[in-house]
């Protein structure tokens, strides 16, 4: 029995799976005069569907999904979510659309304790910046290079957290994977 499965008093406990945070930049979007109304391109729709298929295949289906109110972010999750077996319903959160690291962290920190996996569907620069500051220095080097390359549209960074979502902050997570499904 591993130490994680035995308490100090000798009683057995079940191992607690790590919490996961998925930072997702919306898929490719068209231009438009009103930023909030920019839709996904046809390529972006395919990219978002590939994202959902990858999440399902990789066993990374989130318990909770926070989505920017921007049309392209909503459409990204509609397409990705359609490929998932769980049918998790997104939560629109204007703070994700604020596009700042502080606003993203505030939204993530309100995650209920029973959630083990949270996806945030938002925008650059905040998604890429948050991915950079969360890393605890033990990240996968290939994933780290992917994040540092500019966090392209449709990209997803997968972090493991040692603590709760309420305590998430700079240096509090380990980057395990970075992908751009469909590319």
UniProtKB/TrEMBL annotation:
Query: Has UniProt tagged this entry with the keyword Hydrolase?
Result: yes
Write down the InterPro entries for this protein, in alphabetical order.
Answer: His_Pase_superF_clade-1, His_PPase_superfam, Mito_Ser/Thr_phosphatase
Q: Which Pfam families match?
A: His_Phos_1
List keywords of the entry alphabetically: Hydrolase
Q: Which GO terms describe its molecular function?
A: hydrolase activity
User: Know the name of this protein?
Assistant: Phosphohistidine phosphatase, SixA
């Amino acid at each position: 029995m591993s130490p994680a499965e035995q308490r100090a008093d000798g009683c057995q406990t079940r191992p607690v799976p790590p919490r996961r945070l998925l930072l997702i930049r919306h898929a490719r979007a068209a231009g438009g005069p009103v930023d909030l109304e920019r839709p996904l391109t046809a390529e972006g729709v395919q990219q978002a569907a590939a994202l959902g298929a990858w999440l399902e295949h990789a066993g990374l289906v989130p318990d909770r999904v926070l989505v920017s109110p921007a049309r392209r972010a909503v459409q990204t999750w509609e397409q990705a979510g359609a490929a998932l077996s769980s049918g998790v319903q997104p939560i629109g959160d204007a703070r994700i659309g604020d596009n700042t690291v502080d606003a993203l962290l505030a939204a993530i920190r309100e995650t209920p304790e029973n959630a083990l996996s949270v996806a945030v569907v938002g925008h650059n620069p905040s998604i890429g910046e948050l991915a950079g500051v969360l890393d605890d220095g033990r990240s996968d080097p290939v994933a780290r290079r992917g994040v540092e390359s500019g966090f392209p549209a449709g990209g997803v960074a997968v972090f493991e957290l040692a603590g709760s979502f309420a305590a998430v902050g700079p240096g509090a997570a380990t980057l395990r994977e970075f992908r751009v499904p469909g590319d």
